[in-house]
Amino acid sequence: MLKRFAVRNYKNFKDEIEINFGSVGGYQFSKDCISDGAITKMLVYGRNATGKTNLGKAIMDIASTMLTRAGFVENGVFLNADSADDCAGFSYTFDISGVELIYRYTHFSNMELRDEELIIDGASIFKCDFSNKKYCFDNLKYVDAETANVDIYLQALTGDEKTEENIESKLPFLRWLISNVALKSDSVLMRLSNYVRRMTMITVGNVMPYRIIRRTSSLFYESLEDPNRLKDLEDFLNAMGIECRLVLKKLPDGQRELYFAHEKLVPFYDNASSGTLALVDLYRKLIFPAGDPSFIYLDEFDAFYHYEMAENVVKFFKKKYPRCQMIMTSQNTNLMTNRLMRPDCMFILSRKGTLTALCNATTRELREGHNLEKMYISGEFEKYE
What we know:
single chain
């Protein structure tokens, strides 16, 4: 489980911003937001352009650094435009079955590392300073990797000319270690790799792409030919407050078309609302794979939802993924309620790049009976926006 994350000098985050999932209050309500002493369900509020999407991209940077998951490689502006520093720093603290693992590194760009270090229970396992060509692999035995032939790895770092090809060859040592050493399946590094592989970020975009899903996601539509899978999608929509029955038909050209089932079939994608389309896209991206996600970042997940539907979505994910860590970003203050969340699990992301829990954004001792939305609208937390 991810216990702490910090990033600095990345995009709009000039100064360090930290998420401490272990900072749990003593609230006796909405306990389903907490698991094993850590926050597992978090809501982040922020005005437009405060960096809610960038925060998710920063957290997901470990997927591209450690596993080369191309979908999370950042191709835009990487470093903060107002900083004199030439690199961005990332730090992840994990609790892997009682073992504290810290993986931290700095990037010159999205492709080039400056340095990298892995610390387990306070011991530095390896440390790489790529800029000064200084490397320390003295404690690989602590992860049962003392047989790793680091000379082969170092040979890939001998190039002096900073070309794009050479930068790409300077792969992170942790990635190389996991890929090239026969680690035990239950080793802490394999468990870390398993956690990171199951991290995902979903951003709600313009609704127009949803209308061509039927032409671009053949695997999804093939799966809906299974009556149980189609019923599962139908049940999901009904649980969200969309009362409907669905029918899938195969067209003469071999394409599949989804319909609302009435006396006359109604084409689904030509008639569904933006909120319904967003729900189906969420289902397709997250629930349809039927995986076991470890960490989910849902960015502006309720952009097209009525407030009751947004609440239903939060309740659904709390029930479906009780131990999965989830960060949901929103501008919907209707979700700012203790019957759904709790003050130590709701955060305000400010224009200055600070992240503050509601329980720390006021001098009041917040209780279950407080109307948090009313307090927010009246300006109680304005100092932290």
